[in-house]
Specification:
The protein is an alpha/beta fold. It is 41% helix and 16% strand. The chain contains 19 helices and 21 strands. It has a six-stranded mixed beta sheet, covered by helices on one side. A hairpin with a 4-residue loop joins strand 18 and strand 19.
Length: 588
């Protein structure tokens, strides 16, 4: 009765030495536990998101050498692992290297090659021969691969299938994996074991969390055993017992609970990775900075968090009071640094300093608009105060953006768009409210984020037009625009489709917002079209330049800005079909 160990190591991309050390430790642990075989995920030596290291011959050779160490450790146990592949042992030029995920099957200190079929072998476990098939690849394209994978399974006729992946977290990922791997197990009419890594990896602008959640499926495709999410280690299952294990319960954890767990895990790992333990957070009395404060406090401890309120003449006593209450509830260090004097000085200096035209021997003075003065406030807070405080305390300061604001560029460059990490920038505004209430109830067990912050109208408070005490706030109507912007980003809908749905009376159903909001916010087609074009122009225009320059985000959705949503700085475009439909609606 062979014992199968399936591992979910925490992989550090680009560090094969560290990864190999962990793999060897797990192999030793599996041997000690009496396992006959241990399986690791694909590219577990190199890591998956390794950037240009894919083209470095010396790096690939290092991975190859590490692979030899793992193969040598297979004495007395079968080992299946993923490595990056180097063709011709690095003898060909780097630009021509064909390096990709490579499945290695080793036993008795050497690689097994029973047939010339990649990812297939016959091995002896506990005195009996078993046919094993291994699959790997880009999980986001698995549906495209399904026919060829099923063909491979039918051809190899395995007794056991191994799925070896680097699969990043999204709230619905486990159910999607179960659906896909169930088909594979049924195709083979045999058990399947899915393995995955833990930890974080990044593509520069986007930081992905990897949840592990290694799973054993029976021949009916039912999940019968699952490893804890976001926890490094390995588990063992007896091959002959897989068909006897009862199916595990369907995952009923709420979406917000999954998001919180992944977010906390990702931020904590990232802080450890960059070696930072102190954080400065600008708090406004609004929901975004409150959620960031509660999150970082839980991760780093209140003693390592400095909360800073930076009021101008436009900040109400209401939000200033809520900021103080938040700091008190969390037990964090707290500062009040008024900015009006420095903002006034900047405005006065710019307006009173002449602009000289030397060739014409003439001069003029600038007159700053209200909009420019609003941006001066935002930059003064971040570029002057928060950056200086972060340096003074030996820490970093946060970007408290949400995905709605990021989509349309509703932020000031070098102002509230600045910071070392935009942890919540892959969460829509409604998710920020859900997270606030979840943390109060489930994480802290008390009201750390004041109810007043949850209830108050969202506002940047940069002018009298955004007076919260008068119920005035941001130009974004979040109950509707959250879903419109999500349709742009995550559903790839353009104004053409949006306007078509509007003309058919199906828009709210198609984008998922509450019924009645379109009529509530827009009296006629003209107002609707004006609003739609305003945001589309920002989303595909100036907001792209802002997103390129803003901090990295923790990926929590299928389409976070960055790696999964490549962008070009092109001008906004409206199709001919859109223009024709627009003209028809306006005529009516």
């Amino acid at each position: 009765m062979p014992k199968i160990a399936y591992a979910q190591p925490e992989i550090t991309a680009g560090n094969p030495d560290l990864n190999t050390k962990k793999i060897l430790e797990m192999i030793a642990g599996a041997k000690k536990s009496g396992a006959d075989l241990i399986v690791f995920p694909e590219m577990s030596v190199s890591g998956y998101l390794i950037g240009n290291a894919r083209n470095q011959v010396s790096f690939l050779r290092e991975c190859e050498e590490c692979g030899k160490d793992i193969i040598a450790a297979s004495d007395g146990i079968a080992v299946i692992f993923g490595n990056i592949e180097l063709k011709e042992s690095g003898k060909i030029p780097a630009e021509n290297l064909q390096n990709s995920g490579n499945v290695c099957i080793a036993q008795n200190g050497k690689l097994i090659e029973s047939e010339k079929i990649d990812g297939f072998a016959e091995i002896n476990l506990a005195g009996k021969n078993y046919r094993i098939s291994c699959i790997s690849g880009e999980e986001k394209r698995l549906d495209d691969y399904l026919p060829s994978i099923e063909g491979f399974i039918r051809k190899t006729k395995p007794d056991l299938i191994f799925g070896m992946f680097n699969s990043s977290f999204t709230p619905d990922k486990i159910s999607r994996r179960d659906e896909f791997f169930s088909k594979i197990a049924k195709t083979g009419n045999c058990p399947m074991i899915y393995s995955n890594v833990t930890g974080i990896q990044n593509g520069g602008k986007t930081i992905f969390t990897f949840d592990g959640s290694a799973t054993v499926y029976n021949s009916k495709g039912e999940p019968v055993k699952r490893s804890p999410a976001f926890r490094e280690g390995f588990e063992i299952v007896e091959f002959d017992e897989i068909e006897k294990l009862p199916p595990i319960k369907i995952d009923e954890e709420s979406e917000v609970a999954k998001i919180y767990r992944a977010l906390k895990y990702g931020v904590e790992k990232f802080m450890n990775q960059i070696g930072m333990k102190k954080v400065v957070i600008g708090i406004s009395g609004g929901i975004d900075s409150a959620v960031a404060s509660a999150l970082y406090t839980k991760i780093l401890g209140a003693e390592n968090i400095l909360l800073v309120n930076m009021p101008s003449v436009f900040n109400s006593s209401t939000t200033k009071g809520l900021s103080e209450k938040l700091a008190k509830n969390l037990g964090c260090k707290y500062m009040i640094v008024p900015i009006q004097e420095s903002v006034d000085f900047t405005v006065k200096q710019l307006e009173s300093t002449p602009v000289n035209f030397l060739a014409e021997n003439s001069k003029e003075n600038l007159k700053l608009s209200g909009f420019v003065k609003e941006n001066i406030q935002a930059r003064d807070r971040s570029s002057r105060i928060l950056a200086a405080l972060a340096a003074a305390t030996g820490g970093v300061f946060t970007c408290n953006a949400n995905k709605a604001e990021t989509t349309i560029g509703y932020a000031t460059m070098y102002g509230d768009a600045a910071g070392f990490l935009a942890a919540t920038a892959d969460l829509w505004k409604f998710q920020m409210y859900e997270l606030a209430e979840y943390m109060n109830k489930e994480i802290y067990g008390r009201e750390v984020i004041p109810q007043g912050i949850i209830d108050i109208v969202p506002s940047a408070e940069l002018s009298n037009a955004q007076n919260v005490d008068e119920g005035k706030g941001d130009p974004v109507k979040y109950p509707y625009h959250d879903y419109l912007f999500r349709a742009f980003v995550e559903k790839n809908l353009t104004p053409e489709e949006i306007l078509q749905f509007y003309s058919e009376g199906k828009l709210e159903e198609k984008i998922g917002c509450a019924p009645g909001l379109v009529k509530k916010y827009f009296a006629n087609a003209g107002e609707f079209i004006e609003d739609l074009e305003r945001w589309w122009k920002l989303f595909t225009g100036s907001a792209v330049a802002k997103r390129i320059q803003t901090p990295p985000v923790i990926a929590l959705s299928k389409r976070p800005f960055g790696n999964e949503l490549p962008e070009s700085q092109n001008s906004p475009h409206f199709t001919r079909t859109y223009q024709n439909l627009k003209n028809e609606l306006l005529k009516k």
